[in-house]
Design brief:
Helix content: 40-55%
Radius of gyration: 19 Å
Number of strands: 13
Largest sheet: 10 strands, mixed
Number of helices: 15
Length: about 325
């Protein structure tokens, strides 16, 4: 059982027995779960304070923070400024990462295949149904593709990973935009549903001839075969920290109201096309001010001490100027 699965099986990360830490609860996105669990484990060792984070999907995390049942919510689908105002919430990006297509095909190694956005959209629309379809063969002339039918795996829960994945497909495929669109949950034309990045990773690893989409750390942890992608510049790129950083470098957080910014299909010859930020949501006027203050201490610690761990899991730490902006947001907008 790998690190992520062990944590998932336990149902929480670094749960503490101390009174303060027991009150620091978070729930939401599965996308950042590997790094949040790593940070929480180190933070517990460094400070004695723990964190209970439920990896339940962005949609459920948003619902829980609005309902005030957790200290913070986590989502990869940022809320628009008007919704933040309506719910009395503060939002900020915590870390950036990337989403990758993953396949289970005999004899195919990680990165050996490449897909483009249009073909990926057609697979999820159900119009490309076989692995040896001419569209896939044209992109992979030297790859021995099976004649088998494609088993499509997608999320069944409200998901920020789905939000970013479908946002990308809507940008590169007019058909996808008009027939399906984007969101944390969509009316999927085809596919088998699985809950969380964990569920999609598990389903793809167990199902021959399947394809899915997961946060890159899940692909690595579960030793899944990821594909390359053709980016907006028409260049084939592999999912690497340099490619994620190239896409993230376009982000102008200072001009984004409520830090609302989508990073998919960014320009640049080396940019990975499905790059995303993951966000924290907290109430401007917390129900439990002590727990809120403790949570802010954890986030501050993560920004100051968690960069190396983030990069080791192929996430992109927030740049220092952005961290300074976020710290100003904490002091001005959250009453704790």
């Amino acid at each position: 059982m790998n690190f992520i699965k062990a944590i998932v099986a336990a149902g929480m990360v670094a749960a503490s027995t101390s009174a303060f830490a027991a009150d620091i609860t978070g729930a939401g996105a599965t996308f950042p779960f590997p790094i949040y669990s790593k940070w929480a484990d180190t933070y517990k060792k460094d400070t004695g304070n723990g964190l209970n984070y439920q990896s339940i999907g962005s949609g459920a995390g948003i619902k829980q923070i609005i309902a005030k049942t957790v200290t913070f919510g986590a989502t990869d689908a940022p809320l628009k400024p008007e919704q933040l105002d309506k719910e009395g919430l503060v939002q900020w990006p915590m870390v950036m990462g990337a989403i990758v297509p993953v396949v289970n095909l005999d004899g195919i190694k990680p990165g050996e295949m490449v897909l483009d956005g249009d073909t990926l959209a057609k697979i999820y629309l159900g119009t490309v149904t076989k692995w040896d379809d001419p569209a896939i063969k044209k992109l992979n002339p030297k790859v021995a593709l099976p004649t088998s039918a494609i088993t499509v795996v997608r999320r069944s829960d409200g998901s920020g990973t789905t939000f970013n994945f479908t946002d990308y497909l809507a940008k590169v495929s007019p058909d996808w935009k008009s027939k399906v669109g984007s969101g944390t949950a969509v009316e999927w034309p085809v596919g088998v549903g699985a809950k969380g990045n964990e569920g999609v990773a598990g389903n793809v690893s167990q199902t021959k001839n399947s394809i899915g989409y997961v946060e890159y750390a899940y692909a690595k942890q579960n030793k899944l075969t990821y594909t390359g992608l053709i980016n907006s510049a028409g260049k084939p790129v592999q999912p690497t920290i340099a490619a994620f950083q190239a896409a993230a470098s376009n982000a102008d957080w200072a001009k984004a109201a409520g830090y609302y910014l989508i990073l998919t299909n960014q320009p640049g010859e080396t940019s990975w096309p499905i790059t995303a930020a993951t966000f924290i949501l907290m109430h401007k006027e917390p129900v439990d001010k002590a727990a809120s203050a403790e949570a802010i201490k954890f986030f501050k610690w993560a920004f100051e001490n968690g960069g190396k761990a983030a990069e080791e899991l192929d996430y992109i730490p927030m740049p220092e100027p952005v961290v300074k902006l976020i710290e100003k947001t904490w002091s001005s907008d959250i009453k704790s």
